């Protein structure tokens, strides 16, 4: 459930939106029609105080953070490095996963696929020989920590696995929901516009790494890579930005090196835990 945008099950917070307002978050007017059916014409509706919505959001996020810590402990016990891949739809997350599984040299790898519907991306990952679990969120616009836990226990990745989570295509709500991952990897493509970081600052603030995909198309699109870097730095100083092309392979070696670094960083902690288990 998402208290921020109102998606999810019937218990979610619903905020009335006038008919002439275009909600660009990917939802239709189902909530509006249901709301009017129960409460009469929109003009007669008295809005609840804004503090009620804020309070609900804080409770939802606090509960999610508790569950994310449970996930983090579950992963740490198994020496699993989990990365949460987020982007707009069509930025190239699934294609990146396919090449990463086949070429990166990281092993073992497991994948959690998040989409509102279908098994299409999970089938693509399965074709690489990688173990995968699909999470369909229905009306939900993001994965949350409880969904991730159910996926983890179903997938049951082996100790030492690199776990790649492909979140639902959305640069808004996934920024708020910790899944228990080591880092969020934000993918933006050059076809989306230079100003993407300015439009979605919370996601870029949450990023542990930013990948700029489809650089093979730079000669054909209006995208300023240097300015995009500046925008990202203004929002999240110091975050690493890696330009690459999943199609041509340009820059992918730097992405694979970054993944290897994440595994090495986990190494000392993994050795300590192994020593603790040996002494039990």
Structural topology:
Layout: H1 30-39, H2 50-77, E1 81-87, H3 93-103, E2 109-115, H4 120-126, E3 131-136, H5 145-155, E4 162-166, E5 183-189, H6 196-199, H7 201-206, E6 207-213, H8 225-235, E7 241-243, H9 252-279
Parallel strand pairs: 1-4, 1-5, 2-3, 2-4, 5-6, 6-7
Helix pairs in contact: 2-5
Quick rundown:
With 280 residues, the protein is of the alpha/beta class.
What does this entry look like structurally?
The longest helix has 28 residues, at 50-77. Strand 2, helix 4 and strand 3 form a beta-alpha-beta unit. This protein has one domain: Rossmann fold, CATH 3.40.50.300. It contains 9 helices and 7 strands; from the N terminus they run H-H-E-H-E-H-E-H-E-E-H-H-E-H-E-H. The protein is an alpha/beta fold and 280 residues long.
Radius of gyration: 20 Å
Q: Which CATH class is shown?
A: Alpha Beta
In terms of DSSP E residues, the strand content is 15-25%
Task: State the total count of DSSP E strands.
Answer: 7
**Largest sheet descriptor:** 7 strands, parallel
Q: Helix- and strand-based class?
A: alpha/beta
At CATH level 3, the topology is Rossmann fold
Spans of at least 5 consecutive residues with low confidence: 10-43
What's the total helix number? 9
Order of strands in the sheet with most strands? 3-2-4-1-5-6-7
Q: Helical percent range?
A: 40-55%
Q: Whole-number average pLDDT? A: 83
Distance between the termini: 41 Å
């Amino acid at each position: 459930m998402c208290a921020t945008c109102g998606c999810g099950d019937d218990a979610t917070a619903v905020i009335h939106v006038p008919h002439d307002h275009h909600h660009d978050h990917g939802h239709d007017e189902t909530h509006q029609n249901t709301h009017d059916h129960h409460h009469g014409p929109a003009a007669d509706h008295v809005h609840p105080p804004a503090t009620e919505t804020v309070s609900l959001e804080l409770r939802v996020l606090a509960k999610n953070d508790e569950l994310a810590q449970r996930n983090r402990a579950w992963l740490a016990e198994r020496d699993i490095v989990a990365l949460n891949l987020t982007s707009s739809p069509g930025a190239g997350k699934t294609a990146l996963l396919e090449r990463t599984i086949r070429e990166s040299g990281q092993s073992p790898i497991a994948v959690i696929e998040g989409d509102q519907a279908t098994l299409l991306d999970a089938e693509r990952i399965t074709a690489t020989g990688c173990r995968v679990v699909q999470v369909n969120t229905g009306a939900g616009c993001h994965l949350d920590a409880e969904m991730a836990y159910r996926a983890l226990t179903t997938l049951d990745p082996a100790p030492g696995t690199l776990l790649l989570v492909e979140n639902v295509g959305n640069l808004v709500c996934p920024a708020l929901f910790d899944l228990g991952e080591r880092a969020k990897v934000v993918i933006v493509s050059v076809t989306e516009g230079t100003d993407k970081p300015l439009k979605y600052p919370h996601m870029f603030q949450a990023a542990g790494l930013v990948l700029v995909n489809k650089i093979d198309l730079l000669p054909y699109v209006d995208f300023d890579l240097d300015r995009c870097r500046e925008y990202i730095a203004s929002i999240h100083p110091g975050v690493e930005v890696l330009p690459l092309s999943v199609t041509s392979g340009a820059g992918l070696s730097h992405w694979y090196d970054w993944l290897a670094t994440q595994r090495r960083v986990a190494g000392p902690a993994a050795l300590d835990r192994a020593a603790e288990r040996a002494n039990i």
